[in-house]
Amino acid sequence: MKILSARQIREADAYTIAHEPVDSLRLMERAAAACAQWLMDTYRGTARPFYIFCGPGNNGGDGLVIARLLADKGFNVQAWLVAKGTPSPDNLANQARVPFLQTIHEPGEFPPMETPGVIVDALFGTGLNRPLEGWTAAIIHQINGQRGRHDIVSIDMPSGLMADKSTKGNPCIHARYTLTFEYWKLALLLPENGEFAGETVLVPIGLHPAYTAAVQTEYHLTDMEMIRTIYRPRDPFAHKGTYGHALLVAGSYGKMGAAVLSAKAVMRAGAGLLTVHVPGCGYEIMQTAFPEAMCETEEQATFSAHFDEPFRLRRAPEYDVIGIGPGTGTEPATAKALERLLGLWQGPMVLDADALNILSKWPSLLQLLPKHCILTPHPKEFERLFGATGNHFERLELLRSKAAELEQYILLKGRFTAMACPDGSVFFNPTGNPGMATAGSGDVLTGILTGLLAQGYAPKAALILGTWLHGKAGDLAAAVSPEAMIASDIIGHLANAYAEIQQ
Ligand SMILES: NC(=O)C1=CN([C@@H]2O[C@H](COP(=O)(O)OP(=O)(O)OC[C@H]3O[C@@H](n4cnc5c(N)ncnc54)[C@H](O)[C@@H]3O)[C@@H](O)[C@H]2O)[C@@H](O)CC1
Ligand SMILES: [K+]
Prior knowledge:
Helix content is 40%, strand content 15%. The protein is α/β, with parallel strands linked by helices. It folds into two domains: 6-213, Rossmann fold (3-Layer(aba) Sandwich), CATH 3.40.50; 224-502, Ribokinase (UDP-N-acetylmuramoyl-L-alanine:D-glutamate ligase, 3-Layer(aba) Sandwich), CATH 3.40.1190. The strands form two sheets. The protein has a ten-stranded mixed beta sheet, with helices on both faces. A seven-stranded parallel beta sheet has the order 3-2-1-4-5-6-7, sandwiched between helices. Helix 10 (283-289) links the parallel strand 10 and strand 11 (294-298). Helix 16 crosses helix 17 and helix 17 crosses helix 19. Homotetramer. This is Bifunctional NAD(P)H-hydrate repair enzyme. K(+) binds at residues 59, 121, 159.
């Protein structure tokens, strides 16, 4: 699914009006009717009144239509026009159709709203072009002050948030739900705005599909259609060699769990063969915990500078992919080993955890990476690798520019994990939940990505599919209890995540 900028959303709106028998007033009616329906379905039977705050533009126009539609259905509705500036023509036309509309001219006129109800925030949407200040900011603070007593539902955007620019630190509605029209907006996907949007619900309003099909965007949200296009069913004539031989370099004294979790995920993702390279202290652990993997070792608790000797990496062509990093530690000897490895290997590769920490400590190693590896930092690892930024839009831009400059795929973990490709595109992943913020979850992702690359998926396909599978398996695991789930449960649900694609 493409993520459009505020300008492109306006164009999609105009294109629909030009190419369909619908004028702007009808389109507003359609969008507002979809919201009114959601509000009725969600709050029917609760006897909660609706308190609707309408701004001067078309977002306010949506609020006016919602007020009328809910009142027509017999709901208890109060609506206020927060009057500042000239109203848009469609807003004005709808004001006349809400006889019970009141006006707030200054913050002192903020209504009491005694009965617990639902505040509908239709003050500003994608038309916001600068931070809110003065008395509009004061109204936002007053609405936020009501959060304990009322549910707040924002229409299209939480008022105060700009669709594709940072509004960090500026006044903004804290919604429980955001009913956003037709497309995800970039701002709704970035963690710094999570507290404002609450739960985002996508509301289709029937914009013309031809515009979306043709428009060029850098940002995308992974959806099932994309996943089904990427996924390749197994060949009935397959043997284990068909699905590749992965090498996983992982573990150290006290951190063999990371290696075991990663190894299991490689195989559960579908790799044909796996060799795990661990320090000597981990040999028995690995062979016992996961007999499906072959295991080779070194004497030391960490990896030696002579990595390639017992390791016989000169036989590298027998591997299809190398995954490296979970639990390896960042000893100088291990860093040397990674350097040697990079001198010998130019194939597909996944670098995670301590492999990334080594790259941060010795940044010159970044230049030795084969092109089109997958790097999977969490925000702290990303900051150590590439530096701090002032807000999450800047961080996204840094992610994009580093992926292009280094010609690597870089995955930045988060609620909507952002995956930047060397061609400048960024894919956001929708699956996953807070239950996955648990030790070992990242090691499982490394394993899944390594397992997909082993099977011959191209890096971009492996990245999008693997991250989706990881989140979906996590969602299935969290369905029982997000608190009680552990990383092994994600592996345990990978089969069910695959099954969802095949349905
Ligand atoms: N995209 C679409 O296809 C559709 C959009 N609709 C609605 O239209 C909205 C966009 O409408 P508009 O473009 O009229 O914009 P908005 O209603 O979001 O806001 C524009 C108004 O706010 C004022 N404004 C902007 N920044 C301000 C600031 N910092 N302080 C005070 N005032 C400020 C402008 O002067 C203007 O009056 C969407 O969010 C959505 O709710 C729907 O009505 C129907 C279909
Ligand atoms: K709004």
